[in-house]
């Protein structure tokens, strides 16, 4: 087997292992103990607070953000950001680098992505209140693309600054 084939196989096996660990942890530990509900509330609270900072009259009904008494967005498992956090962290785990760097970078990256997601939710609430067509487009395309670009930027920073393979000694 060529060296590149061995490295590729090692990455594929690491990725598969990380996916299996994530799948088991999520489905058999996190989800049954209400992790999604906790994340939904955290994102809804943050989005509600941020919309208020933008000068709108807001209220929170469960995990739904209301603007001027109109229910605008409801945070569910697909909106709480956990999937994008997992994709980001999974890549960092399987890529080369020191473990303590990985742990610190994942924590900082997830915090950054959480803040971006709260901003995304707040902007969606405002979009929904101001113009439903803008909301639908931004929900489906704009903010989703921005979130994934943020993940790619974080990955590129990891590769260029912290990965053993690319960091100059």
Description:
The model has no long low-confidence stretch (mean pLDDT 91). A hairpin with a 2-residue loop joins strand 1 and strand 2 (64-67). The chain starts with a helix and ends in an 8-residue tail after the last helix. The chain has helices at residues 3-30, 35-53, 82-94, 99-130, 132-161; strands spanning 58-61, 64-67, 70-74. It has one domain (34-161). Strands 1-2-3 form a three-stranded antiparallel sheet, with helices on one face. The radius of gyration is 19 Å and the shape is elongated. It contains five helices and three strands; from the N terminus they run H-H-E-E-E-H-H-H. With 169 residues, it is mainly alpha-helical. Helix 3 (82-94) packs parallel to helix 5.
Give the CA-CA distance, first to last residue: 29 Å
Helix-strand string: HHEEEHHH
Count every beta strand, where a strand is a DSSP E run of 2 or more residues: 3
What general outline do the C-alpha atoms trace?
A: elongated
Give a topology summary.
Blueprint: H1 3-30, H2 35-53, E1 58-61, E2 64-67, E3 70-74, H3 82-94, H4 99-130, H5 132-161
Antiparallel strand pairs: 1-2, 2-3
Helix pairs in contact: 1-3, 2-4, 3-4, 3-5, 4-5
Concise summary:
By secondary structure, the protein is mostly helical.
Keywords:
single chain; about 170 residues; mainly alpha; 3-stranded antiparallel β-sheet; elongated
């Amino acid at each position: 087997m060529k060296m590149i084939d061995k490295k590729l196989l090692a990455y594929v096996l690491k990725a598969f292992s990380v996916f299996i660990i994530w799948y088991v942890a999520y489905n058999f530990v996190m989800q049954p103990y209400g992790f999604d509900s906790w994340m939904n509330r955290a994102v809804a609270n943050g989005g509600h607070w941020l919309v208020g900072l933008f000068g709108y009259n807001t209220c929170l009904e469960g995990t739904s953000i209301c603007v001027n008494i109109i229910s605008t967005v409801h945070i569910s498992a697909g909106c709480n950001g956990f999937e994008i956090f997992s994709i980001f962290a999974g890549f960092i785990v399987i890529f080369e680098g020191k473990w303590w760097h990985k742990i610190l970078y994942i924590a900082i990256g997830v915090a950054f992505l959480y803040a971006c997601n709260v901003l995304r939710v707040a902007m969606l609430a405002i979009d929904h209140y101001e113009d439903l067509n803008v909301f639908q487009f931004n929900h489906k395309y704009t903010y989703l693309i921005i979130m994934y670009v943020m993940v790619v930027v974080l990955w590129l920073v990891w590769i260029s600054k912290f990965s053993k393979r690319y960091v100059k000694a």
